[in-house]
Amino acid sequence: MDCIFCKIIEGKIPSYKVYEDNQVYAFLDISQGTRGHTLIVPKNHSNSVFDLSEEDAKAVFSIVPKLSNVLKKAFNPIGLNIISNNEKPYQTVDHFHIHLLPRYKNDELTLSMVNRMGEYQQIDYVDILDAIKSAMKA
Ligand code: 5GP
Ligand code: ZN
Q1: Alpha carbon of 28 to those of 41, 99, 126, 136: distances in Å?
Q2: Is residue 114, in this structure, part of any structural domain at all?
Q3: At 113, is the pLDDT very low, low, confident or very high (cuts 50, 70, 90)?
């Protein structure tokens, strides 16, 4: 399979390795969105969260607190964002990955969430919950 991250895990493409265990590989994002920007990937190839096994999810997510604390200690950020883009157009590399993005004052990274509180009525929340519950049953 022609996957950049699989090649990185196999050592066929060089990377700045941050961490590795039997199931997980973490390395610096080539484009340092902010200083310390790190990617965490499962060694098993999954395209996205939608085909990620629970076992790989456990392995990948369980390393998040440790690596976040390492980045905090190393760079003293004012905060840290954890994001994962899944499917196009947001995802550009089709091997599931989590971005750890230390945040700094005036770092110019924008991930703003629009506050829509007040735009939703009780009926809207019930509709949304119904859709989710129906999908869970199916
Ligand atoms: P996505 O857009 O899928 O959420 O994130 C993919 C990330 O992979 C991007 O931030 C991009 O900079 C990074 N990336 C793409 N190719 C390489 C590579 O060859 N090496 C490294 N270290 N990062 C890469
Ligand atoms: Zn892959």
Answers
A1: 11, 10, 42, 36
A2: no
A3: confident
Q: Does 129 reside within a domain?
A: no
Q: How many whole angstroms from 44 Cα to the centroid of ligand 2? A: 7
The domain total for the chain is: 1
Rounded Cα gap, residues 47 and 49, in angstroms: 7
User: For the domain that residue 56 is a member of, what is the CATH number?
Assistant: 3.30.428.10
State in Å: Cα 4 to ligand 1 middle: 9
Residue 134 inside a domain? The answer is no
The answer, yes or no, to whether any atom of ligand 1 lies below 6 A from the CB of 12, is no
Alpha-helical runs (H) found in the chain: 4-9, 54-62, 64-75, 122-137
pLDDT in tens, 18-53: 999 999 999 999 999 999 999 999 999 999 999 999
